[in-house]
Amino acid sequence: MLSRRKKSITGKLVAKQVPKIKPSKARRIIRRFHLLIQKRRVICSKLQCLIVEDDEEANAISIEKFFKKNKSLRQSYMVGKNSTRLDPNLEELLVRAQNVNSSRQLCELLGYICREIDEDGGLKNYQMASTVGQDSNRGGDSSKLLVKWCKELSLDKTMGMNALELGSLSAKNNISTCGIFNPVVRVDLNSNDTVNIEKQDFMERPLPENESEQFDLISCSLVLNFVPTPIQRGQMILRFQHFLKRNQKTYLFIVMPLPCLANSRYMTKERFNEMMNCLGYREVRYKAAKKVAYWLFNFEKSDDFNHTNTGMSRFTKKVKLADKPGMNNFAIIIPSKYSGYG
Ligand SMILES: C[S@@+](CC[C@H](N)C(=O)[O-])C[C@H]1O[C@@H](n2cnc3c(N)ncnc32)[C@H](O)[C@@H]1O
Question: Does the pTM of the predicted model rise above 0.80?
Fold first, then answer.
């Protein structure tokens, strides 16, 4: 049930509540968090190189699985997990993580990062800071554009559409208040509002058994860049099709930071669109703003997607498209073995 908006003494609706945190502090928290997930990405990809080469699942290995296989390194990971916040030595190591080659140091660093993200309020603070960024006084949430596009496409409440919002930070975002989508199912890894937002890893959400568990629209705003490895991003994208209805009028809204496309060695807007086309999505709207890129895709596949015959092999590996100093390594890899979990 949605919480009711407060009214002033004169009966006017009171502006939505945003956490009391200064924008400058919010920016600092967001920058720190982005640094942590970027370094975690670097470390994870370095550690994967240490896994036996004939292990086909190597790329997909999670941190937990990694330590099950590499028990001796768990100790270093735990040292990092138990270290104090802003440890000067580890902070120094963090800055040059890409040049660290000792697996022990990498694991210690990984523990240090994971503790701050998972246990030290890192994710919670980041979400709070992101909510400040979503405040309408500061540009509003990204679903404002989604709603504008839906109206352009004549989607309205008479169509009885429902939506799944991944990485939801607020039940008061435009997607929930516009009235076009009802219900809006909201999930997040770490919900600060468990009444309105289900705490769930989308990758663990049970696959729908019938259309009543599927959606007319999935919103995935600034979530893909949050997912730690290229292959996990690919797995997330592959999962979407299971959750979308098969009636030609289903949509996927994606938002990513612009540098993921405009400044990556492995990804461009063209490549991302080709990948999505292969998976049965057609771009109906696109906008590149100053810092983020927005897409609305129509999901056109009505028959079951066959992973082997759609030209998908082009996207099962990282391909270097450019290489200049200052570029980032953002990539998406579609797993070559598709298990349904993906
Ligand atoms: C940068 S925030 C984006 C929030 C909001 N959607 C926006 O556009 O500002 C990314 C959110 O995605 C969530 N997230 C990342 N991976 C997820 C997953 N596998 N399942 C559910 N939520 C996930 C994180 O917990 C985080 O709150």
Answer: no
